């Protein structure tokens, strides 16, 4: 009987320790899909860190969506100039915003589009194909060790396929051009032959 209660006590302690470890473990934020056509705010730390959700309704990274058409992803620094970023899609580098000088000014109070349009702010737009996307943003330059930025994804219009078959009017013009070239060549040949006989 004594060994049974000791076993039960050990099992209870092990269960409590396991529960405590799970309860104390840091929680990983789950990614949520983003909506195309709207700006999202992200916060960031020092160089090499990855952007996190920012102010407002921005879900946790990675930012995911699926598009039936190509998309344009715009990324811009916010507030003060000097930060630069790299965009990844499904873990693959897509491109980077250019490094810019840290100069007085910025885009505080102008909103995300104002920051994107401001030439002293690091920003870029990247085109991705149709399909499932999972975006992350890495900090490449951060003089102040952190800040805010913005990103958005916009669906591109479906492209109309380009016709490679000439239209009937084009064929007629091309035929007329060939007749004209042939006529000129024949006249030159006839004129050359007449001069040689003379």
From TrEMBL:
Keywords attached to this entry: Signal
Entry-linked Pfam families: PEP-CTERM
Source species, domain of life: Bacteria
Stored InterPro entries: Ice-binding_C (IPR013424)
Signal peptide residues on this chain, from the entry's feature table: 1-23
Domain Ice-binding protein C-terminal stretches: 164-187
Protein name: Ice-binding protein C-terminal domain-containing protein
Species: Roseisolibacter agri
